[in-house]
Recover the amino acids of this structure.
């Protein structure tokens, strides 16, 4: 998380196996219940529902915005970053990552998904949070690793983002990024 004036900029990699932020990594598993579970260390309460974060494993879905799971996981990621700074109320800007092969086709829909609620009040691990989501941008996963040093890349370079059953390649030629041809990319495993 970076603080710019009062704004909290939080980078989140919405992976299939794990959610990752600058300081946290946790399983994408989500179990929802109408009643508070007896045992749940990473319990998120939102909209009258109880979500056990990290429980189980999220099944592969090409469209991460089709259900509320990744939204709830996003709230958990934000809470984990804010907790480190002892912040419970903040304006938040989300910098999210999607697999390179899906950025162009899903960028708009995923951004709209993340911005579905301007203000969100929820409880995570017994702490109440009130955030105002002021914006979001979607980037290719793995690009953050090279963004600041892109000018240093001469010749042909290959950025490889290896995930939980996925692999995406970004070709960098003389500082310019190009999507690697689809025929060379692995296809995510389902189920």
């Amino acid at each position: 998380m970076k603080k710019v004036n009062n704004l909290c900029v939080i980078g989140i990699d919405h992976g299939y196996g794990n959610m990752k932020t600058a300081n946290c990594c946790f399983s994408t598993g989500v179990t929802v219940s109408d009643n508070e579970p007896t045992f749940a260390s990473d319990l998120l309460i939102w909209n009258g529902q109880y979500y056990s974060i990290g429980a189980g494993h999220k099944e592969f879905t090409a469209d991460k915005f089709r259900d509320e799971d990744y939204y709830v996981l996003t709230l958990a990621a934000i809470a984990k970053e804010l907790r480190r700074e002892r912040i419970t109320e903040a304006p938040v800007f989300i910098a999210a990552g999607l697999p390179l092969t899906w950025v162009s086709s899903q960028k708009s829909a995923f951004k709209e998904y993340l911005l579905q609620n301007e203000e969100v009040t929820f409880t995570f691990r017994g702490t109440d949070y009130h955030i105002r989501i002021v914006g979001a941008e979607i980037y290719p996963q793995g690009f953050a690793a090279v963004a600041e040093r892109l000018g240093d890349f001469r010749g042909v370079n290959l950025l490889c983002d290896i995930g939980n059953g996925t692999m995406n390649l970004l070709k960098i030629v003389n500082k310019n990024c190009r999507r690697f041809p689809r025929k060379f990319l692995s296809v995510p495993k389902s189920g």
Remarks:
- Residues 69-84 form the longest helix (16 residues).
- The chain has two domains: 2-144, 151-184.
